[in-house]
Design a protein that fits this description.
By secondary structure, this protein is mostly helical. It has one domain: Butyryl-CoA Dehydrogenase, subunit A, domain 3. It is built from 6 helices and 2 strands, in the order H-E-E-H-H-H-H-H. The longest helix has about 35 residues. The structure holds flavin-adenine dinucleotide. The site of flavin-adenine dinucleotide has 10 residues, from helix 5.
Amino acid sequence: MGLTGSATATVRFDDVRVPEGRRIGEEGQGLPIALAGLDAGRLGIAAVAVGLAQGALDDALAYAKQRETFGQPIAGHQGVAFLLADMEAAVDSARATVLAAARRKDAGLPYARQASIAKLVATEAAMRVTTDAVQVFGGAGYTRDFPVERYMREAKVMQIFEGTNQIQRLVISRHLVRAGAEPSHHVLRGAIEEPQA
Ligand SMILES: Cc1cc2nc3c(=O)[nH]c(=O)nc-3n(C[C@H](O)[C@H](O)[C@H](O)COP(=O)(O)OP(=O)(O)OC[C@H]3O[C@@H](n4cnc5c(N)ncnc54)[C@H](O)[C@@H]3O)c2cc1C
């Protein structure tokens, strides 16, 4: 459906022997190490999703200002203006969520829960915003004359890779019910005040 700028292929490892000196952690720690790698990847995907949603919003806004129906630019119709307002709110809130998680990472704090939330929030926002961008373009949005149809296709994979959004909900709910999980209001404040974990 998309992601044509990045080559995707299956990699197979048959009978591969890796010297012990190449081991990157203690024996038996492979899965936790691999899963920790996903946390940073989820932040990256979340940031890409914010950029994608912002791009869709920018294009939709520009189109809504110049396309006229019923004697005025479609941005002047409240039905379209409110759609744009919801898109702006979704992009802004997704960006704030991603930055809050990234600040925790930069501060050396645990951020697995926040990375999953950022990935979930930003990619769901990107799917909604890019779909709405196609709507703002009307029939033109469904053609390949404008980039918004591609934005919509690209948004879809972000809900799937680096752990599907169902898996993000699994991660978040496990953190939520686990005893000792940090309160969510520490997300921003904690980046400054919490001790190094
Ligand atoms: C374009 C593209 C690029 C990719 N790049 C990479 C890459 O670089 N590296 C890499 O390792 N992988 C990559 N992937 C693979 C991607 O990470 C997986 O497709 C994704 O993790 C989902 O796994 P799956 O396809 O096996 O789906 P499945 O695990 O079969 O899931 C199918 C459906 O069931 C749901 N589901 C599964 N288990 C649960 C559960 N416990 N609770 C609730 N719902 C559940 C899923 O959310 C999904 O909706 C890529 C995929 C695509 C499409």
